[in-house]
Amino acid sequence: MHGICALCKDETNLKESHLIPKFVGKWLKRTSATGYLRDIKNINKRQQDIFKEYLLCHNCEILFSGWEKLFSEQIFLPSLDKKQYISSYSEWLSKFCASLSWRTLIYIKRQNNDFNDESEYF
After folding, report:
1. Could you give the strand order of the β-sheet that contains 52-57, starting from the edge strand earlier in sequence?
2. How is the chain split into domains, by residue range?
3. Are 50 and 36 in contact (CB under 8 A)?
């Protein structure tokens, strides 16, 4: 889909971006009682994937996915599989957390686009 990247503001082809990282959705499916995800608005309806929307260009998606990969491999999966809670990390963890918060805030803002005064958020 052609549009404006929410991060870099370039007008280009946008990728479908997961609001929550894809590895979390895979884990939710794998560990769910039914092996499926459910639609949040209709729990009787199955979902193939977690929510995603056209949000980022290819370059910005690659930037975020690098931090997601590090988080998945160095913190998320080791804490689940090996019960290993001590992990080494560097500035990428802060960037991952910021990217997740940023995506969430962008989603909330888009869902509530009828606000004229952004101070209502605070």
Report:
1. 2-4, 11-18, 52-57
2. 2-57+64-112
3. no
Selection from 64, 45, 50 nearest residue 5 by Cα:
64
pTM: 0.75
**What is the Cα–Cα distance from 85 to 76, expressed in whole angstroms?**
9
Q: Render pLDDT for 8-29 as a digit per residue (tens, 0 to 9).
A: 999 999 998 888 888 888 888 8
Average pLDDT over residues 80-108: 85
**Number of Cα atoms under 13 Å in the Cβ half of residue 59:** 9
Contacts of 80 (CB under 8 A, 6+ apart): 27
How does pLDDT run across 66-89, given as a tens digit for each residue? Answer: 999 999 988 888 888 777 666 677
Look up residue 73 and give its amino acid.
E
